[in-house]
Amino acid sequence: MSPKPVAIDFNRDRFPFCIVWTPIPLLTWFCPLIGHMGICTSNGVVRDFAGPYFVSEDNMAFGRPAKYWMLDPSRARDGVQGWDRAVAQGSEEYKGRMHNLFCDNCHSHVARCLNLMQYNGSTGWNMVKLALMMPLHSTYVSHEQGHTVPLN
Fold first, then answer.
1. Rounded CA gap, 88 and 147, in Å?
2. Cα 45–chain centre separation
3. What domain of life (predicted)?
């Protein structure tokens, strides 16, 4: 029996197992690699380190996601449960941190979650790696009807 497919719902901003990105006014205009990043739970809810001691849920700091990078939950230690556990744990940790644009920011939060789940067998995720990989692997959000992607 194959797993139930998971759907991206563009209209509700639900991006299961995705890293999402949105531009930051002015900063992104001058340097397109700079933007705001979040990581989504298995049900697609975005968690993002939005400021000092604050991780938002389902409301990105700079608006709706503009790009998404779908990851494979089977590459997380303990699969779907490991994914959600790592996103929750990383988010709780970042609720206790001061936000710093240059060294402990939204990208760092996403990297921490990926390291906790040992995504792709790695604990070497960091903000620079994510900033460079996001443009290579992401897709612009479309407001067409959501598509389904099977969980492997």
1. 26
2. 10
3. Eukaryota
**What does pTM read for this prediction?**
0.90
* Number of helices and strands in the chain (H, E): 4, 8
- Alpha carbon distance 1, 146 (integer Å): 24
In angstroms, rounded to a whole number, what is the distance separating the alpha carbons of residues 11 and 104? Answer: 31
- Three-state SS sequence of 95-113: CCCCCECCCECHHHHHHHH
List residues bridging with 123 in a β-sheet.
none
Distance CA 10, CA 67 (A): 11
- Average pLDDT value over all residues in the chain: 91
Does residue 58 come out as left (phi exceeding 0), alpha (psi in the -120 to 50 range) or beta? Answer: left
Question: Closest Cα to residue 69, out of 8, 137, 148, 142?
Answer: 137
The residue among 60, 112, 71 whose CA lies nearest residue 90 is: 112
CB 68 within 8 A of CB 145: no
Q: Per-residue pLDDT averaged across 114-119, rounded?
A: 99
Is residue 146 predicted with pLDDT exceeding 70? Answer: no
In contact, 84 and 39? CB cutoff 8 Å: no
